[in-house]
Design goal:
By secondary structure, the chain is of the alpha/beta class. The chain has six helices and nine strands, in the order E-E-E-E-E-E-H-E-H-H-E-H-E-H-H. The strands form three sheets. It has a four-stranded mixed sheet with strand order 4-3-5-6, with no helix packed on it. A three-stranded parallel sheet has the order 7-8-9. Strand 1 and strand 2 form a beta hairpin. It is globular.
Length: about 170
């Protein structure tokens, strides 16, 4: 069996290939990671890839120029769900600061469930009101004074706003 590889297309168009060895690979800007990618829109620890038996499965839509087209491609490959990852580094570089900006175009492109990374209840409410099947939040909740109360508030607002996706 041939070794699986992670191929990164740099902003200058050059492709760099990394072998996927072992049971897990961490990709990001930090020194000492399995795969170090020194680009401003790559997080310090951007992704963790894990082997499940003989299969490596990773789909990350962060930084893709055409979210809908990539989601459609992933659906054609047999992916069961796509996740619109809008990372903190990406948000800092984006004047709109809109984590939901690609949801409508992605919904037009695919019929599979779509998840959205959010930065607060307002983003999440917009996403589920538009039909996102999953929302995720991390640092904004855990960095507050009372993470449990912040998470409860987030969940309550998301549940109240949820609307099933229109077919």
């Amino acid at each position: 069996m041939s070794t699986a590889r992670l191929v990164w297309e740099r902003t200058d168009g050059e492709r760099v290939s990394f072998p996927l060895d072992g049971e897990a690979v961490v990709v990001g800007r930090d020194d000492g990671l399995t795969v170090r990618v020194d680009e401003p829109l790559v997080s310090r620890q951007h992704a963790r890839l894990e082997r499940r038996g003989e299969v490596w499965v990773v789909v990350d839509l962060i930084g893709v120029k055409n979210q809908g087209a990539r989601a459609r491609q992933c659906q054609e490959w047999g992916v069961n769900m796509v996740y619109l990852h809008y990372g903190a580094d990406q948000r800092r570089a984006d004047a709109t600061r809109d984590s939901v900006q690609w949801l409508a175009e992605t919904q037009e492109a695919v019929k599979i469930p779509i998840g959205v990374g959010t930065f607060g209840a307002e983003d999440a409410v917009r996403a589920v009101s538009m039909g996102a099947e999953l929302v995720a939040i991390g640092h904004p909740v855990i960095s507050g004074a009372n993470p449990l109360e912040a998470l409860k508030d987030y969940c309550q607002k998301v549940r109240a706003a949820y609307r099933p996706r229109k077919s």
